[in-house]
Design brief:
The chain is α+β, with helices and mostly antiparallel strands. It is built from seven helices and three strands. The protein has a three-stranded antiparallel β-sheet with strand order 1-2-3. The radius of gyration is 24 Å and the shape is elongated. It starts with 5 loop residues before the first helix and ends in a 19-residue tail after the last helix. The relative contact order is 0.10.
Length: 195
Amino acid sequence: METHDLTGDEYYRSTELVEIDGATWCLVIHWSQVGGRAEAIGIEAWSRRPFHAENYEPAVSWDRLHPEGVPITSGVLRRLNIASRITQTRRDAIRSGKIVAKAPEFSEKARAAGAESVEVFARPGRPQARDLRFYQEVSRAYQAAYARGKAPTRAVAEQFGVSQAQAAKLVRTARHRYGLLAASGQGRAAGVVQD
């Protein structure tokens, strides 16, 4: 598996050769920091030498791939199991980062990069499940903005650091699932919290 320091240039690429039905596939997962966390941002799957193979360091054993390539099918895509490979790559990056960070034989710079790699790969992703208490905070932010004559959904977006569309979903959930906001007409604000 190829590794690059995600923290140095904020880019990482993992490369793995995978055997499926007698054909060898080169699976490449591209990573970048998104919101301070390492996230898979692209994939490549090649059954023959890629056109840009010279960009891969260290060189992959291209001779293991079919000279002309084999068709990619839905079955191949399922068997590549990309989601679990992303999860495993994340675990591997954390494990190797911890080893480098603690190993005295590595330079101080390498140990710092290992520790930083652990931080960006291990940083939590999606927020924990949102409960009633969270939606009460959403409804309070909405109601406060409504009372001040401000755009309430925009205020929720700003307070919780989400997009306008995500804020609208939060407000809709607070209103319909938890009954924390009064019903409103589509596109119209209603800020009275129901008891």
